[in-house]
TrEMBL record:
Pfam hit, one: zf-B_box
The organism's taxonomic lineage, starting at the top: Eukaryota, Metazoa, Chordata, Craniata, Vertebrata
CDD domains registered for this protein in UniProt: Bbox1_TRIM36_C-I, Bbox2_TRIM36_C-I, FN3, RING-HC_TRIM36_C-I, SPRY_PRY_TRIM36
Family indicated by similarity: Belongs to the TRIM/RBCC family.
Domain COS: 344-401
Subcellular location as annotated: Cytoplasm, Cytoskeleton; Cytoplasmic vesicle, Secretory vesicle, Acrosome
Organism field: Ursus maritimus
Name of this chain's protein: RING-type E3 ubiquitin transferase
One BP annotation, GO: spindle organization
B30.2/SPRY domain mapped to chain residues: 484-709
Database matches in SMART domains: BBC, BBOX, RING
Amino acid sequence: MEGDGSDSLVTIKNIERELICPACKELFTHPLILPCQHSICHKCVKELLLTHDDSFNDVGSDNSNQSSPRLRLPSPSMDKIDRLSRPGWKRGSLTPRTTTFPCPGCEHDVDLGERGISGLFRNFTLETIVERYRQAARAATAIMCDLCKPPPQESTKSCMDCSASYCNECFKIYHPWGTVKAQHEYVGPTTNFRPKILMCPEHETERINMYCELCRRPVCHLCKLGGNHSNHRVTTMSSAYKTLKEKLSKDIDYLIGKESQVKSQISELNLLMKETECNGERAKEEAVTHFEKLFEVLEERKSSVLKAIDASKKLRLDKFQTQVEEYQGLLENSGLVGYAQEVLKETDQSCFVQTAKQLHLRIQKATESLKSFRPAAQTSFEDYVVNTSKQTELLGELSFFSSGIDVPEINEEQSRVYNNALINWYHPEKDKADSYVLEYRKINRDEEMLSWNEVEVCGTSKVISDLESNCNYAFRVRAYKGSICSPCSRELTLHTPPAPVFSFLFDEKCGYNNEHLLLNLKRDRVESRAGFNLLLSAERVQVGYYTSLDYIIGDVGITKGKHFWAFRVEPYSYLVKVGVASSDKLQEWLRSPRDAVSPRYEQDSGHDSGSEDACFDSSQPFTLVTIGMKKFFIPKSATSANEPENRVLPMPTSIGIFLDYDKGRVAFYDMDHMKCLYERQVDCSHTMYPAFALMGSGGIQLEEPITAKYLEYQEHM
């Protein structure tokens, strides 16, 4: 029996890697089964949901979370964590709006649905195995009796019905023969008590008695009658138990029968590991040799360049020194002038003439040089500046020999940045790689390059998160096929928005005119229908009546901080106004739109009337710019001298709005180039809302935040 216990201990210890949670890297604690069939600790699921929800909400706030207009609870918050397991959370509540997070085991997004954590099964089998492992690991630590008077005795049994451990004497006392308790199920000493009957998480009073073959999970009869599994094929629990146990036993027997083959392959893998280590060291030595050769070439070129500079410097200094000496000779009692003064003292005429002729020529030459002063050499070494740009670019692309693998190319049209960065690249099908490595780094304002961050990717797209606002980032990708690596692609530079992305949808209640506007179910797209009703109202223009704008606003207001959002205006749109407006101004517009809103008298309507320019106010509680007929109209202020044609720009594909509530500034951006088109002051004394208005046919589509789920949808499409 002792030998069997030892074998059991060894077996349990050998499976430790199967008992580690992929999230916390510790032994499982109350593991739950995710829809992807991987298990994860109960507390880890809560933390992942909380973290994922916070990162989703943070796109509408600053990094410090202090500028968000939404109410938040401190993190970590037990109150918020407890809410995670409650079903039916709604938009705008304190509980998370998302039930999707990436599984730490397979990295695929899993959706917990409306019930959230409450809809997950607890993996009691795995929990029992973990408990056996814990007991094997602490075999020397005894489990004491729960009912003994102090000092307690060592327990010999644990009752699964009572959820308690007993010594022999206490077990007899509390489970006497001839009573109901005598029928309780008991096992060896344990601290892991699990329910004898597995209950349905969706119908808490119903027992699990069937198995859904489509969803691969146990269900109750109510799930089959009218629940989510009503149209699914189910089988009895006993049949599923028998089938799965037979399959598992058969597979285990197969693996046990192949034990010699497995050991042989392990030996082969160990040899391959040693060979890989040797080849890796050899490759490092060869790489060092190649770099040392490059260093030698650079040192040689450096030496020759410095010698050339020194030679030119010496030649120029010699010329300057000669010129200095010549000019010093022009000073009184010095050099040429001093010598000439001595010659003038000669009284013998023949001797004077003989000497003075040559001296006079030298004096004339010195005089001409003095009149037209010119340095003997140049001080600039512009011709000696070493141009290393081409070599630097080549060295930057220095990589391993690709062995025929083509370089992947980043698709600039499909790559974009919003709340996160979405990078797409293309690689020929004939050279399809096993994997890719996407590299990215931040470029500082002084163009200082930071170190590259690397992400391994299996597909040809990747979402990069946690990028800083208002920064330039460089991206590049390289392909791997086996152990062979291709050179890096050409770099793509993207500029992140000037502030965290503000998340909102169109408000379907406040001021929404369902006769003229059509809002989709997701509330991220609105269209203006120029139909018969608009023609009837336009008929009144004969008596000085103007057709009003139809307003629609965001469903979330802003009370502090910096925020950014983006949208697309459909090219066919006749007249669309976009911007921000305060709550009191919106109430004024929406109460009497027929009287207060006129294209002529709206200060930022884009209408070029003189009255509009004259009444331009820098502290008004709203700012709207006009877009239409594929044009972007920059409003004209009273101090602006620009001609109208200089204020009309081509309409960007995507338009962004940046609001700095605390400083009272609003700016409009071309999202394609992250370029500011127009900026001005705005009065932010009240709650500010994203505001939109349409006249005639038109459409506005809010930019969808970039998430991992969004990427999977794009790939599917």
